[in-house]
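pasting for the record
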Amino acid sequence: MSEYANKKTRGAFIAAVFAMQGFGILAGGIFAIILSSAFRARFDAPAYEDEDAETARYTALVAKNAKQAASDMSKVLQVDLEAEEQKVQQLAQDQSNSFGLFSKEFLRRHGIHLLGTTTTWFLLDIAFYSQNLFQKDIFSAIGWIPSAKTMNAIEEVYRIARAQTLIALCSTVPGYWFTVAFIDKMGRFAIQLMGFFFMTVFMFALAIPYNHWTHKDNRIGFVCDVLINLLLCKLWTYATTFVVPAEIFPARLRSTCHGISAASGKLGAIVGAFGFLYLAQNKDKAKADAGYPAGIGVRNSLIVLGVINFLGILFTFLVPESKGKSLEDLSGENEDDNQPGEQGSHNSRTVPV
């Protein structure tokens, strides 16, 4: 998607695609509420593949087919474009940009960037997915959701879906679309840095006085803190970890590097989902869930998440700012295009290679 957008609004364009996840989460919660409500009213006890075409940049820079690139972009932009055959041939003969993913040149140019995108996505998904798992236990601990022993499975689905839908409505959806609105004004680096910073602050605000939040009179404040934490996750950080890898790498390696970054995030999701499921168990084996060993408790698990968010701050400094820059400038594929005498060619309607 980054290759079809201009550099002024590219961040919002990519973030808007990712932000639709918020509506999916909201729709999932609403569907669960409707379905569980329907069953609860009747039962007292539980009882095609779409193939996308290649982008014009890939067709021109990797496949070296300027005519096809011009044709594809003409259909997208609904304007007549000229094929830059000479420029594509020059790029084909230039060996300085032909390095592979597992090469010293890639390591020199983009190794730090790839480390930054993979680690930040990995750390964020640990925090995000563990928080999703913690929601049930946290809301149960403060009495917002009754103990599982006091209700049947359908009732439990209904109450959990209601709580999670409230969170999606108040934090997830607004957070995503705030990023869409401001990512090209504030910049990716600033948004991500502030996101990890405030997530760290609010996570420690949850963890350190955890016993205070479990008192009945403090439940609303606790829920507000959780909502703010999730809002900051979506508001400042989650979309930027998706956007930046789609911008800063060369066209022929862009999807691969974005996929590596995303895979790193899913690895973080596994760590967050399963690792913290065990860590959050009660320190007393007798009080832990059936089949689980004793853990470090919810409070200590939240402290660990705070430390993970702090590490996210540090690794964010490895990620470059991409606001207002062309994809070629970011990836270093456009180093020779700013020489005198070539500026006039950018005024004509040609394929953006």
